[in-house]
Amino acid sequence: MPARQSTTSLAVVTSRFRLGEADRVLTLLSATRGKFKAIAKGVRKPTSRLGGGVEPFAELDLALITGRTFDTVTQVRSVRVWLGLRSRLGSAAVAWYVAELVERATSDEQPEPELYALLLHAWDLLESGAPDALVARWAELALLDAAGQGPELDVCLECGRAPVAGEALRWDDEGAGIRCLSHAIGGAFSSDALRLMRALRRFAPEELVALNLPPAPQREVSWALRGAVHILFGAEPKSRSFMDEVLAP
Ligand SMILES: [Zn+2]
Prior knowledge:
CATH 2.40.50.140, de novo design (two linked rop proteins), 2 domains, five-stranded mixed barrel, 23% strand, elongated, binds zinc ion
């Protein structure tokens, strides 16, 4: 049996499950390593040295021993903690949802620094008090853009014409972008919804509050991006319904 190798990694926990009496298996994301799994042995015992160190919504400096299936965590130190996400249910629900999106979009042991930065940026925005639902929409659009599946928002998919201000449009059923009303493909999409979607691509969510958009275009954008994310992953993210329930007015 080859000598077991020790490594260190800066990572965040995106999901975790209990194993046996006192262990946890963690799914971790790292800018330099992508997605990987590690086991935290004895972590659920009150006397564990790892104890509270492997909580979610923290960037952790981990010492690991390489194993055949999973690495084993031997030491952990919190580098950054997003404490606000642990105390506000709506922000926590969005934080878990964005973590799931990024986890699904990242391959095992394939560094995706852009996606890792997206996740931390979303957590920063939530921590700073940006509206929870807008952070979710911003993250969905940023993820689609990063995956090369970002919707066309500037010109009609069919004829290439740029819509005029206030023009009613249609939204492609597969999330590819906008069409003129005359093409009769896709569902209704208002000019306010297009304005919000474009702003989500350009600004951070805290800047969008100044737009003072009514709820209707937010619902249209939510519906449009929900479909596009479903198509990207071939399924609805598991944390979606909980987030929707928590954020429902
Ligand atoms: Zn057209």
